[in-house]
Amino acid sequence: MSTVIDKRPSTLRGARLPKWSPYAIAAGSAAVAIGVGTAADLASRVQWGLIAGLLFIISTYVIAARVEGRRQAKDRIATCLVWVAFLLAVVPLVSLIWVTVERGVKVLDVYFLTHSMGVVADTEVGGGIYAAIIGSLEQVGLATLIGAPIGVLTAIYLVEYGRGNLSRAITFFVDVMTGIPSIVAGLFILSLMLMWDMQPFGFAGSLALAILMMPVIVRSTEEMLKLVPNELREASLALGVPKWRTILKVVLPTSIGGITTGIMLAVARIAGETAPVLLLVFGNPFINNNPFEGAQASLPLYIYQQYANSAGSGAAYDRAWAASLTLIAFVMILNLVARGIARWKAPKTGR
Amino acid sequence: MAKRIDVSGLTAYYGTHKAIEDISMTVEPRSVTAFIGPSGCGKSTFLRTLNRMHEVTPGGRVEGKVLLDDEDLYGAGIDPVSVRREVGMVFQRPNPFPTMSIFDNVAAGLRLNGNYKKSELQDVVEKSLKGANLWNEVKDRLNKPGSGLSGGQQQRLCIARAIAVEPNVLLMDEPCSALDPISTLAIEDLIGELKERFTIVIVTHNMQQAARVSDRTAFFNLAAVGQPGKLIEIDDTERIFSNPSVQATEDYISGRFG
Ligand SMILES: Nc1ncnc2c1ncn2[C@@H]1O[C@H](COP(=O)(O)OP(=O)(O)OP(=O)(O)O)[C@@H](O)[C@H]1O
Ligand SMILES: [Mg+2]
């Protein structure tokens, strides 16, 4: 009996293409595409690539449909599309980082990080971004000090207390604020400065940056707070813990990882803002440690000014690239820190 | 410090939906009272009105009186936070605080309320865990996260957390519905011990459980879907299960319901 059962073809196991088949199909499509390209004398390699890609998708579908059936063929096509989308998203990112690193490392050294432009003309070699780093850190730091608490508290209000029209109005305005172009935030603060007849200074930039980061923080914090299960709030309330203490000791600790990530991402976003800084902080080749008085430098602004004032000088371009690399590194470090905090603070599982 | 609960004419709403209507009953101190009834008849809702957790739900509203030893929980000037310190609650699904260790979970009530002495904390935690029959299983890993326990252990952890603040009344909403028979037995034994000190109210869908653990049983029912739930009768558990005075109760208990 058992031998009979063994010989019956399994209904659960269909024919499968061998593991190496995608590579074989890819190689085949590439070969055909090169053949067609040379035969038809197509100049652009992009065309070759497109032909190869199309061939690959079509032949994958046809072959898989023949051997494995239509459902598996569709599955393979979907897998292909996901990979293509992934590559399309990664290519610009990698090439951007590649170019920035390649051009940026030329002048990026300790001297560059610890000196400012001072009296070095934009067309000369030398100088550095110390003033810009100081300016960026102070402006972004102050903006975070203002924006993060207000943003987090607003989100707490919306999720934990908000009912009815007031909270709907706040949600609406937060949505509107998310869409404010950065230059408009800059102009808003500039109009205030003009009313009081003030000169550019770092803190004005911080205010504009805070306006830009607040809605982002409100949104991300709101999502994180909504993820905290209601049962935890009820468990705490049922112990006779007041609501504010429940929020402080149970809700926030449970979601602190996500909230920090949101704040860090908002910081990363405003660290690269140029427009409001250009209007309000103005830029300064000399070191100014005081964000409350006098023009300051800032990294994105420095990049822009080096590029704009270069008058074709290679030295200025090099400095602009090096500053870009510094800015990207800064943002990346922030992201890594955010991930680290998120992992460290995540609710613990396991024995 | 067990206290008597006296409910009269209690009606509870979710927004405009009337969930339970005109419920009156007395819950004796140092006894176990079981609530039984079909799904949706308002057992949980009624339980939550007893420690003012009902109003935590958006739109939750209560009419009527709940006297805790002659003091109306819904009277003017009553602080719901103090009410909840006297009337503790254990939920259907175990819900330990995920960011806290086992120790911190049990200590949470005292810590979060802020009125404790550091030296007492250790003793209270040990006593509560022993009271919840969990001490032997966790005494070597008090600093590990509470979410790393099994479901039954988590539920007993939640019971330990609830009794650590020494409430006068303990409300339990289907505390065993997610548990295996052995954990269930452990919790039933525990209920038997706890009733020496607390007034206990337990919601259950398990008739045998109600018969085993409770001294008195209340049967809730609703006339039709969308109608408010009502208290059909409350009596000694033996009477309810042998010779109830209302036909609907007998039908429900013997499985001839609906
Ligand atoms: N948060 C809520 N918002 C609106 N209506 C609710 C809410 N919770 C419960 N209800 C309604 O109140 C009524 C009673 O619900 P309740 O949860 O008290 O029933 P129950 O007897 O505990 O049922 P079960 O045995 O299934 O737990 C139901 O009609 C339910 O739809
Ligand atoms: Mg219920």
From TrEMBL, chain A:
Keyword field contains Membrane: yes
InterPro entries: MetI-like (IPR000515), MetI-like_sf (IPR035906), Phosphate_PstA (IPR005672), Phosphate_transprt_permease (IPR051408)
Protein name: Phosphate transport system permease protein PstA
BP GO annotations: phosphate ion transmembrane transport
CDD domains: TM_PBP2
Lipid bilayer topology: Multi-pass membrane protein
Family designation: Belongs to the binding-protein-dependent transport system permease family. CysTW subfamily.
Higher taxonomy: Bacteria, Bacillati, Actinomycetota, Actinomycetes, Kitasatosporales
Keywords: Cell membrane, Membrane, Phosphate transport, Transmembrane, Transmembrane helix, Transport
Entry function: Part of the binding-protein-dependent transport system for phosphate; probably responsible for the translocation of the substrate across the membrane.
Keyword Membrane: yes
Domain named ABC transmembrane type-1: residues: 133-338
A Pfam family assignment: BPD_transp_1
GO MF annotation terms: phosphate transmembrane transporter activity
Membrane spanning stretches: 20-40, 46-65, 77-101, 140-159, 171-195, 201-218, 250-271, 320-342
UniProtKB/TrEMBL annotation, chain B:
UniProt keyword Mitochondrion present: no
Domain ABC transporter residues, every copy: 5-247
Keywords, in A-Z order: ATP-binding, Nucleotide-binding, Translocase, Transport
GO CC entries: membrane
Single GO BP term: phosphate ion transmembrane transport
Keyword Protease listed: no
InterPro entries xref list: AAA+_ATPase, ABC_transporter-like_ATP-bd, ABC_transporter-like_CS, P-loop_NTPase, PstB-like
GO molecular function, one term: phosphate transmembrane transporter activity
Name of the protein described by the UniProt record: Phosphate ABC transporter ATP-binding protein
Species: Streptomyces dysideae
